[in-house]
């Protein structure tokens, strides 16, 4: 059958009702989103790990389970398995209470877990950034750019303004970093709302703007290049001032302990949920995301919501960049800017987490554990080859995105009943 | 006439998870007859035909073609068995000619690869002449009328040597005149020995065209009866399973002051075509004004301009005396407009929202639904509870997603939301499109009640039945202008003439 259905069966089409707002990628994700409970993300993850295991087997001949066990231990999540009897101090008091896990500095698992949770902070925030835009029917691929802009602004403010009281300095840097992300992402939202420029294209382009502006600022001869004595040949920013560094509450600050930004990320998850489900803003965003035409009919300004949702999305990403700078990086060199990909991992986090707060919380942990567990620091060449180690994370990440994109397949596997019911409903 | 059936369906059962779409349905088609398949939406008409056409495999039952048991595992099998199907939505390629569309997939060729267009055109012309179709094989499909496109679809089936024709709701897209022409063609076809299955939910045309009628209800065959002697009332009872009021009972209208005033409105669509060209209408409180017209004559643009969803070039729109010309949708709603949109699935509802959320679509941002931007989901649910009960919405509670409801219940949700706002003006655009008889009855009764409450109701519909039975005044729209005003007693023919631009008379 080579026939193709024409539009509208020859009826006169109303162009206004047509694809004014037709986010195809987001629409596909929405379909996926609806396709039944936690089963699909779990299946996606298992499938990704299975294929990743096959690759390990094929390239190294080693048992993939050994590899995955090593990654698990590298992530520090085994810390939770080693239950014992320990003590922990209660903040702002001298008293200590019983605690089931080892909090001493000589636990390797604890050190690894701190690193995992540091990465978790930025993955949760970039994940929420992508997820929020998705809920408004937009695919924000610009999380990386917004993350960089937040980091750039944070390192600039954090390293300037000496004499400002510590807490105030931190607050100013955080607010400025988050806002800069909002403005940066808002550009894409504004372009979509006014001239209909597709957000996928504009956010990809803005990623390059952020990248090259950063390289220019901190590169050799750049206006924000460090003014350390003898540092003229190093393309790096000034260090963040001591008073504007975030407090480390677990681990050794000199060994990159876990900073208080962790709580900001957890709070962001709550804020995300509340905003979407308990505010009129969230109602509008979701209405526009599900059905812009119905939202418009209901009296909601679709354009305004595109700009707002993008700005909020950028706030999350900008916050991620800010907390990374103030929490553990303290400086930004051009090489970091080139190789950083945290904003892109955020896409996978949001997709796997199905754009829900709890989903992002869980998938963020998975990806953080993968990133840290496979980092060369934890390498045992006996178990897997160094060049494969970090690639495995990318591989699994790619597979997740691929499987989400291949929603047709997943739906076919798990959605036959559902689609049959829908077909029935149409007859 | 040979009474041995050309087609028999015996004990067809088709199950979908959670539902039996066809439950032991038997059906037979005699040569040269028109056999109507009648039933509400969801009664299993389409499922049965899809089984016959090889799109579904039934769990039980058998299909016999001319006495031979036949397996239909794909439409190819059905076509080979001489079955042709004309879908509700045509499967034509607009930019190709009639002949090209018809020979598609069965092209006469030269040297095995080149389309022999002349031969194709000649064959189509021969076919068209045989059955008096009056179709130009060289016309492009996009340039011919919808009625002619339908004939092209029928020709396509004939070209493939079909002697059994399935027509799925064929009159849904036609004007009354075009429908009459179609019926004449069907008469010619049956005289030539074709057998026709005519799927419909319209009672009047079924009694007019069919020889026998099979009624389906909830997947079961209720009865097969000769059309002679069947009345619309008796068929409706078989279809719905209870007595149905086909005619809306309504008293005389008592118009009050004009609540909706449209003065010399001009609207241009996105393609730059002026779709509404100097249109003026007044709707008074306590009356239903029906706008009849063929689809695409500016109805959609008129409604959108009134509702603030589309800008107008000139003219004025007043809702309850307030000028809302080119104001936002929100301002129009606030001025006292209620709007039952043409397409409830795409515009009227957010299908992924719960019913409670959908019912709050216009007032989520005011008390009591929310305060200072803070939403109170529990209040939405509580209010929804009452409204769903009041409007007899079945199939789900406040937390159910709107997409999970049947069309009739979805429309009740829209109705509940629009009426609960207590609007002064209510626009009802195709309010019963795709609904079954029971739901239509409900919607119609409700609209009359709202009229009696003193609201001004503008009814825009493509269904003449609906216009005729509900309206207190009937206006005909043609190419963006009102070309005639009629009293409710007018005949369909008279309306039909005006709808196609004939007998144009200016309204003062």
C-alpha Rg of chain B, in Å? Answer: 25 Å
Work out the count of structural domains of chain A.
Answer: 1
What portion of the residues of chain A fall into strands of 2 or more residues?
under 5%
The first-to-last residue Cα distance of chain A is 22 Å
Question: Percent range for helical residues of chain B?
Answer: 25-40%
What do these coordinates show?
The complex is a heterodimer of chains A (427) and B (508). With 427 residues, chain A is mainly α. Chain A has a single domain (29-422), classed as ABC transporter involved in vitamin B12 uptake, BtuC (Orthogonal Bundle), CATH 1.10.3470. Chain A has helices at residues 24-34, 39-60, 64-74, 108-135, 143-159, 166-195, 199-218, 261-278, 280-290, 292-297, 302-329, 334-339, 342-352, 357-373, 386-405, 407-414, 416-426; strands at residues 83-89, 96-101, 248-250, 258-259. The model of chain A is unreliable at 1-24 (pLDDT under 50). Chain B has three domains: 7-240, Rossmann fold; 246-336 and 423-508, P-loop containing nucleotide triphosphate hydrolases (Rossmann fold); 349-422, no CATH class. Chain B has 17 helices and 24 strands. The longest helix of chain B has 16 residues, at 176-191. The relative contact order of chain B is 0.10. The N and C termini of chain B lie far apart (58 Å). Chain B has a six-stranded mixed beta sheet with strand order 6-9-10-3-11-12, sandwiched between helices. Classes of the chains: A mainly alpha (427), B alpha/beta (508). The interface between A and B is large, with 46 and 66 residues.
